[in-house]
């Protein structure tokens, strides 16, 4: 079982949170919803999902998690305006563990200064931002580059989630072999 840090703010893209989180839980993984405040109730931008954060950034350590999930919507744009989420993402990137970002999620990776020379995809309007920050943008349902897994939009959720699950399975197999 892996522990997944999922970072969100209000107006996240509903399905980009619920679909991967549900699938991760179905596969035995533990998901922690991290926001600006612990216990904050957040609603998705389409009003189809409402969640309560499990922890605030100040309460968590990136080393305690096996992967990072960044759903899209307006959430990443809000989070990148705060120091704590940006520092969390930077610290998490230093662990070498998988980072999965979909749609507008890469905006937070741009703010954290992590996209230069990476192959990535995103929602179309984020393409120029990624390119200006030095990423090589690709129009694909999922792009895996090292520890980064990115996808374009809700239509890519199956490929995106499967890529994250495959990466987690590979990590768990390596950990078991090294035990």
Helices and strands in order:
Blueprint: E1 3-7, H1 14-26, E2 30-35, E3 41-43, E4 50-52, E5 55-56, E6 67-70, H2 75-79, H3 83-93, E7 99-102, H4 106-111, E8 119-120, H5 127-132, E9 136-137, E10 143-145, E11 148-151, H6 157-178
Parallel strand pairs: 1-2, 1-6, 2-5, 6-7, 7-11, 8-9
Antiparallel strand pairs: 3-4, 10-11
General description of the model:
The chain has 6 helices and 11 strands. A 7-stranded mixed beta sheet has the order 5-2-1-6-7-11-10, sandwiched between helices. Strand 8 (119-120), helix 5 (127-132) and strand 9 form a beta-alpha-beta unit. With 179 residues, it is an alpha/beta fold. The model has no long low-confidence stretch (mean pLDDT 95).
Average of pLDDT? 95
Q: Biggest sheet, strands in spatial order? A: 5-2-1-6-7-11-10
Q: Which residue ranges are poorly predicted, with pLDDT under 50 across at least 5 consecutive positions?
A: none
Main pleated sheet: 7 strands, mixed
User: Approximately what portion of the residues adopt beta-strand conformation?
Assistant: 15-25%
Radius of gyration of CA atoms, rounded to a whole number? 15 Å
What structural class do you assign from the helix and strand content? Answer: alpha/beta
Helix content: 25-40%
What pattern of helices and strands is seen along the backbone?
EHEEEEEHHEHEHEEEH
Q: Give the strand tally.
A: 11
Distance between the termini: 15 Å
Please work out how many helical segments DSSP would assign. 6
The gross shape turns out to be: globular
């Amino acid at each position: 079982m892996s522990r997944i840090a999922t970072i969100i703010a209000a107006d996240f893209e509903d399905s980009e949170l619920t679909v991967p989180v549900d699938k991760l839980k179905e596969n035995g993984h533990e998901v922690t919803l991290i926001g600006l405040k612990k216990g904050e109730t957040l609603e998705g931008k389409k009003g189809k999902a409402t969640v309560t954060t499990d922890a605030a950034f100040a309460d968590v350590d990136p080393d305690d998690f096996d992967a990072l999930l960044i759903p899209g919507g307006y959430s990443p744009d809000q989070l990148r305006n705060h120091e704590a989420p940006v520092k969390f993402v930077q610290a998490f990137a230093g662990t070498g563990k998988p980072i999965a970002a979909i749609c507008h999620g890469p905006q937070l990776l741009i703010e954290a200064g992590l996209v230069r020379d990476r192959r990535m995809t995103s929602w179309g309007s984020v393409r120029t931002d990624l390119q200006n920050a030095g990423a090589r943008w690709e129009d694909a349902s999922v792009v895996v580059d090292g520890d980064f897994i990115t996808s374009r939009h809700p239509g890519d959720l199956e490929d995106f989630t499967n890529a994250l699950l495959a990466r987690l399975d590979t990590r768990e197999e390596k950990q078991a072999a090294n035990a």
